[in-house]
Design goal:
- InterPro entries: Aminoacid_DH-like_N_sf, Glu/Leu/Phe/Val/Trp_DH, Glu/Leu/Phe/Val/Trp_DH_C, Glu/Leu/Phe/Val/Trp_DH_dimer, Glu/Leu/Phe/Val_DH_AS, Glu_DH, NAD(P)-bd_dom_sf, NAD_bind_Glu_DH.
- One of its GO terms (biological process) is L-glutamate catabolic process.
- GO terms for molecular function: glutamate dehydrogenase (NAD+) activity; nucleotide binding.
- With 406 residues, the protein is an alpha/beta fold.
- It has 2 domains: 141 residues, Leucine Dehydrogenase, chain A, domain 1 (Rossmann fold, 3-Layer(aba) Sandwich); 234 residues, NAD(P)-binding Rossmann-like Domain (Rossmann fold), CATH 3.40.50.
- It is 46% helix and 18% strand.
- The chain has a 7-stranded mixed β-sheet. Strands 1-2-4-3-5 form a 5-stranded mixed β-sheet.
- A hairpin with a 5-residue loop joins strand 1 and strand 2.
- The longest helix is centred in the last third of the chain and has 26 residues.
- The protein is globular, with a radius of gyration of 20 Å.
- It starts with a helix and ends with a helix.
- It binds 1,4-dihydronicotinamide adenine dinucleotide and 2-oxoglutaric acid.
- 1,4-dihydronicotinamide adenine dinucleotide (NAI) binds next to helix 7 and strand 7.
């Protein structure tokens, strides 16, 4: 995150003082979370919430449950949220949270107790005007429902707007589940248009088959793109003629959330998936999957980053030299936080929007953001990634200047 940030700051000519204001997170909270496991044993988990910036509005960002979660990762993810919200021009700052745990090896009861303990520990941080969490890797609607319930109990009233990505019955928004994958699709189509690629004659490979990957694959398929490969933690699966994405989703949902044993494609290695000669590669799993080690073998014409930070900074140059267009994470996956913003607005006005209105508005925001970043990349002669940072940093820095008060 910092390497791209430094580059964009140099191009923008930001002062040293502003550099440090933008670099250092506003708040970093680490908590110990004792939880009674089903066995009766008490295990203590470490949880984090980093608020990177609140200059544009309340901070916003998901909560990750994964064994690899650590403070450094959460700090980078929080800063990415600040830049992401600024790129799509929504009135939020950036934050991110997480707990180092393996939800795949925990029962629903254990996860619920962990979510409630985390929420209680973060009561001073969270709030509908302060800091608004949402789902990320390893969490979803169910966890957001428990979070809202625990927070509401502590306040003695129902506070829907404290969290987004909730189930619809609890005030969740129509379209939020598919929103990130939808935004990835809108960005991919906009980029394909620039490269004059016809979606109906194009192919894609998608890494990660969770919320973002599966929905992106399904929506790209709907727009004519042939999905030749998909993957998850269990492995990668290839079918030259195209994978039936709906069948793969149904299989996953009846197979403990995993694609393992999926019959509609042949198994390949995860590395093979990344180097397939497809038009569009969508990394939608986790960080640092495209690195110096494998960037040289990528044959896709474009990479559309569904995940946060899937490409290491060192790999950027190799990919740029190969002439591969990259639609960066802070632009490509911003559809999720955009519809989260709509959910928060609906909660606050106490009114529900139709799916048609939500999709129309989020598609417009994603297209406008893509066009602005594309124009900036032409103007500065830089990649879409650096252009997205320029757009975001410029907005946040100029807001600071207007607000003053240092
Ligand atoms: N859920 C959301 O609305 C948003 C998520 N993101 C980012 O998208 C990425 C994925 O998030 P979700 O889909 O929500 O998570 P998820 O937990 O729903 O799914 C993650 C998927 O990736 C797979 N996976 C994990 N590590 C892998 C690896 N090394 N190789 C192949 N597959 C692997 C898992 O098996 C699973 O299929 C994360 O980087 C997250 O930060 C970004 C914006 C919004
Ligand atoms: O929906 C949100 O508020 C945030 C989603 C998120 O964590 C992300 O965009 O990385």
């Amino acid at each position: 995150m910092m390497q791209r940030f430094d580059k964009a700051v140099q191009l923008l000519g930001i002062s040293d003082e502003m550099y440090h204001i933008l670099k250092i997170p506003r708040k970093q909270v680490i908590v110990g979370l004792p939880v009674t496991m089903d066995s009766g044993e008490i295990r203590t988990f470490e949880g984090y919430r980093v608020v990177h910036s609140t200059i544009l509005g309340p901070s916003k960002g998901g909560i990750r449950f994964d064994p690899g979660v650590n403070l450094d990762e959460v700090r980078a993810l929080a800063a990415w949220m600040t830049w992401k919200c600024a790129v799509v021009d929504i009135p939020y700052g950036g934050a991110k949270g997480g707990v180092a745990c393996n939800p795949r090896q925990m029962s629903a009861g254990e996860i619920e107790r962990l979510v409630r303990a985390y929420t209680t520990a973060m009561l001073d941080v969270f709030g509908p005007d302060q800091d608004i969490p949402a789902p990320d890797m390893g969490t979803g609607q169910r966890e957001m429902a428990w979070l809202m319930d625990e927070y509401s109990k502590s306040k003695g009233m129902t506070v829907q707007a404290v969290v987004t990505g909730k189930p619809i019955v609890l005030g969740g928004s129509l379209g939020r589940t598919e929103a990130t994958g939808r935004g990835v699709t809108v960005s991919a189509l906009a980029a394909m248009d620039k490269l004059r690629l016809n979606p109906y004659k194009s192919t894609a490979a998608v890494q990660g088959f969770g919320n973002v990957g599966a929905n992106a694959a399904s929506l790209l398929r709907e727009r004519g793109v042939k999905i030749q490969a998909i993957s998850d933690l269990s492995g990668a699966y290839y079918n030259e003629a195209g994978i039936d994405i709906e069948a793969a989703m149904a299989y996953r949902d009846h197979n403990g959330g995993q694609l393992e044993g999926f019959g509609g494609a042949e198994p390949i290695s995860s590395e093979e998936l990344l180097s397939l000669p497809v038009d569009v590669l969508v990394p939608a799993a986790t960080e640092d999957v495209i690195t110096m080690r494998n960037a040289g073998s990528i044959r896709a014409k474009m990479i559309v980053e569904g995940a946060n930070g899937p490409t290491s900074a060192m790999a950027d140059d190799i990919i740029n030299d190969k002439g591969i267009m990259v639609v960066p994470d802070i632009l490509a996956n911003a559809g999720g936080v955009t519809v989260s913003y709509f959910e928060w607005v609906q909660n606050r006005i106490g009114y529900k929007w139709t799916l048609e209105r939500i999709n129309r508005r989020s598609d417009r925001i994603m297209k406008d953001a893509f066009n602005k970043v594309y124009k900036t990349s032409q103007q500065y002669g830089v990649s879409l990634r650096i252009a997205a940072y320029i757009v975001a940093i410029d907005k946040v820095a100029s807001t600071y200047k207007f607000r003053g008060g240092f």
